[in-house]
Specification:
Elements (H helix, E strand, L loop, with lengths): L1 E2 L3 H4 L1 H14 L4 E3 L5 H5 L2 E3 L6 H14 L1 H5 L1 H10 L53 H6 L18 H8 L5 H8 L3 H13 L9 E3 L1 H4 L4 H14 L10 E3 L7 H5 L6 E2 L3 E2 L10 H9 L10 H13 L11
Parallel strand pairs: 1-2, 2-3, 4-5
Antiparallel strand pairs: 6-7
Helix pairs in contact: 4-9, 4-12, 14-15
Length: 324
């Protein structure tokens, strides 16, 4: 499924591969886009939507998938979601969704300007005993902060599990809403939804391909994350032929992040030190940026940061000022 992209004209070299999949292997190509372009002409399905309504279309796909007979009868989907996503994870008991608070999430400040994310956190088991009693390095400090494992409900039935919260949130995203907001007929929407379902599962995968038709929206990040949730629900993440594929190739897009030409980013996807938050020392910077969880790959944050700053500061970076 191609959205937010006129792939045939803007990425013609890449577009040869979807066409090859179609002609050689019978793949179904779908284009969801406001315009009928050369991409649309070469796809099997073109669903026309209003510009900027992509996120509603995707939300309705999520709702359709979760409530479909196929998703609820084929054991693959729940097996995948329960084991390879955070769907089973339990969220803070005080979390409230927009449906409960008239369009706001829990944690909004009294002046309506900023959220506290405390109620958005996971319910956790007690923290394990730290393997480090006498921290000598930044990595040791992170190891002391490993939290308890999140609590889960593998049955996906607990009302506070991520799956049930998502299901409730997208309940109102119906085919009728798609007709009203996106301007796309119910029939066209359902054709896309059923095609995605049919081509996802234990033996098949589908992918979603996008470009700057998504990223340049003010809600571009939310659109892409919604696509990620849809693909996770369909079992299309981390498997051959699946995924959410970003069409790039322009040095000012991906390259600006990779080589850090943006003002707020350092090479290696490190954040720029900021005087407004706890970045007064190297230790403060690392502990703030690494966050409370060091069980992921970002547990290597101290090594990334120290290595980069030593390359910058040269002989001025010494063991005495934390760069040993």
């Amino acid at each position: 499924m191609i959205m937010g992209s006129n792939m045939a004209e803007c990425h013609p070299v890449a577009f040869r591969w979807p066409l090859k999949a179609k002609t050689d292997h019978g793949a179904v190509l779908m284009h969801v886009d406001p315009r009928f372009t050369r991409t649309s002409a070469l796809c099997d399905i073109h669903a026309q939507i209003r510009a900027g309504s992509d996120i509603v279309f995707l939300g309705a796909l999520i709702s359709h998938v979760i409530n479909s007979e196929r998703w609820n009868t084929d054991p693959f989907f729940k097996e995948y979601v329960a084991n390879y996503t955070n769907a089973a994870t339990l969220v803070h008991p005080d979390f409230k969704d927009t449906e409960d608070l008239d369009g706001l999430f829990s944690g909004m400040s009294a002046d309506g300007k900023v959220y506290s994310r405390e109620t958005w956190s996971y319910q956790r088991n007690p923290a394990p005993k730290s393997p480090v009693t006498d921290p000598k390095t930044f990595t040791d400090l992170l190891l002391q902060r490993i939290p308890g494992r999140p609590k889960t409900d593998p049955t996906l039935k607990d009302p506070q599990c991520v799956f049930q919260i998502v299901k409730k949130h997208y309940k109102r995203y119906t085919p009728e809403m798609v007709e009203r907001v996106c301007g796309c007929s119910k029939e066209a929407f359902l054709k896309v939804a059923e095609t995605l379902l049919k081509n996802s599962g234990r033996d098949r995968t589908s992918n979603i391909t996008y470009a700057v038709g998504w990223t340049q929206h003010t809600v571009g990040v939310q659109i892409i994350r919604t696509a990620g949730m849809l693909q996770a629900l369909l079992g299309n993440i981390g498997r051959p032929g699946g995924g959410v594929l970003a069409l790039r190739g322009h040095s000012t897009i991906q390259g600006s992040t990779d080589i850090a030409t943006l003002y707020h980013s350092l090479p290696g996807y490190l954040n720029m030190p900021d005087a407004r938050i706890a970045h007064d020392s190297l230790k403060d910077f690392i502990l703030t940026e690494a966050g409370p969880v060091s069980t992921s790959y970002w547990g290597n944050y101290p090594k990334f940061a120290v290595s980069y700053f030593k390359a910058q500061f040269g002989d001025a970076a010494t063991k005495e000022n934390d760069y040993g």
